[in-house]
Specification:
This protein is mainly β. Helix content is 4%, strand content 76%. InterPro entries: Beta-barrel_OMP_2, OMP/PagP_B-barrel.
């Protein structure tokens, strides 16, 4: 996986002499998909005095795109942003006289839209590196449900309005001139978030800046280029 991340980065650092693979006036229709699933399990102590924590999370991202090729392998377009995720954390503690357990379940859903611009760097007959910048707005809903053995469940909901900007690096394989299979990952991300409570009253603003690729941010994409012969 580390070799793949290095390859994605190097594809943006070298421009090879080759004929353009994407003709001016071509229409791009495609999208990117990202899926993450993680589990962790930790236990401490010896019977009867033990404590433990179990965490499971799953996240799905889908970004359909449509764009227009301006020439010189530049493509400008729009994209939609869909996100769904769920995390469940269980904690347990027991002694010779008592035991307690609690569970925190969170659900996240997001929808938004953005503009993007992409530059392709062809090399060889079938491959091309590319860099993409996108920026747009996302509306996110975060729900949490906290349950404990000795108390009633606590349910809360928080809404976020976010402005997101991302810089991606990727590599595309062209089995056909009109079809590209792509791998990409975020290099740089900036998020400005406005948080609201259940009464839709603004509570806080925050800014987040991320730099560097990770295996959890790798996207698989497919693009169709209409009119590209």
């Amino acid at each position: 996986m580390k070799k793949l991340l290095i390859l994605l980065t190097l594809s943006q650092l070298f421009i090879f002499t080759a004929n353009a693979q994407i003709e001016k006036g071509s229409i791009l229709i495609g999208g990117k998909l990202n899926f993450n699933n993680s589990n962790s399990d930790q236990w401490f102590g010896d019977l009867p005095n033990t404590s433990g924590r179990e965490s499971k999370s799953i996240e799905f991202n889908f970004h359909p795109q449509i764009g227009y090729t301006l020439g010189n392998n530049w493509t400008l377009g729009t994209m939609l942003i869909f996100k769904a995720g769920k995390t469940v954390v269980n904690q347990n503690s027991s002694t010779s006289s008592s035991s307690t357990s609690d569970r925190l379940t969170t659900n996240d859903h997001a929808f938004g839209g953005a503009l993007f611009i992409r530059k392709y760097f062809p090399f060889g007959e079938k491959f091309s590196g590319f860099a993409e910048f996108n920026s747009g707005s996302v509306w996110q809903n975060h729900e949490s449900n906290y349950e404990r053995t000795d108390s009633e469940a606590t349910i809360s909901e928080t809404k976020y309005n976010e402005l997101q900007s991302n810089m991606l690096a990727g590599i595309a394989y062209f089995p056909k001139n009109w079809l590209a299979v792509e791998l990409s990952s975020n290099l740089l991300s900036f998020t400005h978030s406005k948080r609201k409570n259940e009464d839709n009253i603004q509570k806080a603003n925050s800014n987040k800046f991320d730099f560097g690729m990770s295996t959890s941010s790798i996207n698989l994409g497919v693009s169709f280029f209409l009119n590209n012969k």
